[in-house]
Amino acid sequence: MQNRNMLIGGEAVPAASGSYFEVTAPATGSLLAQVPRAGATDVDHAVRAASIGFDAWYRLRPAEREAVLLRAAELVANEGQTRFLDTLIDESGSTITKARGEIAYTVDLLRTAAGEARRLYGETFPNDDPHRMSMVIREPLGVVGVVSPYNAPLSLLTKMCAFPLAAGNSLVIKPSEETPLTALAFGRLLLDAGVPSEAINVVTGYGSECGAELINHPAVRCIALTGSTNTGIAVGQAGLSRMRRMQLELGGKSALLVLKDADPKQAAKIAAQGIFTHSGQICMANSRIVVERDIYPSFIDALKAEAEGLYLGDLRDERTVYGPLINSRAVEKVLEHVREAVAAGAEILTGGEVLNGLVVKPTILLDPPRDSLAWREESFGPVASVVAVDDLEEAIAVANDSDYGLSAAVMTNNIQWGLHAARRIASGAVHIGMHTFQSNALAPIGGVGLSGMGRSGGHYSTEEFTEVKWISVDVGSLPR
Ligand code: NAD
Asked: Most buried among 43, 102, 348, 380, by the most CB within 10 A?
């Protein structure tokens, strides 16, 4: 076990207070490291550094920023296993397969973002006055405060950082207190790739302490938060008080529709992947499954078999499908959702209890009341609720019976039904023939309702992290 330091202005520094907090492994409970518990002074230090770093980074030509991000991608491709694999497994309880997937996606995100550095397109538009010419240019915002969650601590953080960097912004990162080690390693990698030392800063600590200081700092121009809806609302209100740009990627309660023409076994396999990957600690997990009555009996039989057939072993065993939840509070929340639903009349098809440590058994609830926590709120664990409906219209209505709207999916072979549902479901994304948990570095990821605001991925990200400016010129004196 070792003390680790933060990354401010290219230096590894402790907190001004000298305090540290512990980072433990959810799978074993063992102590991994102590990291600085940052407060107001440290955040101010980091934001001041980032303000200097902004000038250095934005002054680089787009091709130079592109080259730095491509170097970062190559570093992850070549050294990702040594720099990140063990940390991802130990710190976030990822399986080896999930950790490898995050590393591969990180390479993809960095390469995609690199190209965006050259594509900050502006435009011109016609002017009724023939002596005037109008153009619109895009400019970076300045210092972006990046507040990230624990569930995909490398790839989500990369998504939140690479695109604003491509657009010329500098960053202060506040990673989840559960997963600061991955973020520190990522910050170091960006420095190694050539990001100027002040342009990337990582402060470690608690949300209510250094997170709140960061989002309230007057020199922070934009906040990118990925986290729970409650945090998003608090951060959003604080951000609005200073009229900051905000990108808020929040919780979900995504619905998977299984229509009557679907193959029940195939649909059950996909549904299980969509809820049980990483113990359901995925914002887009299909925690609500809405099944047409015609195939409901065969579907739930197949889903039970899928759930009970999952291998849950050592995180470094490639057969292991998922591991522990992040901490005991997360386990308690999941069990509370199950208990409450069952007390109100839901049936447990399978699971509903702890397997060992922080590992919760794959859990399927049948027909929980529509006002239960399990149906309405994000459990963020390996729990899906299944309900039967009479037809497609009812399935769409049930899918829309949610305050969230991050992702949705439809299992059908009928493209008309699929597209009809896709256009009617209120959600940031709808996938046909797949589960709800889909990633693509170019896609506009984001939600409606309590799932947040703004989009990330490809040019959608760089638009979020730039401001447009109208410039007009009087060209009237020129000969025509
Ligand atoms: P969380 O809301 O507890 O914490 C997220 C981050 O916010 C952490 O870094 C935390 O320290 C910080 N924070 C908390 N309170 C704060 C405050 N008052 N001011 C500033 N910062 C504060 O979320 P989590 O438990 O780490 O992550 C899981 C949540 O993230 C789930 O709800 C999940 O759905 C969501 N998520 C959403 C997406 C998406 O793309 N929409 C992706 C991944 C995770």
From this structure: 43
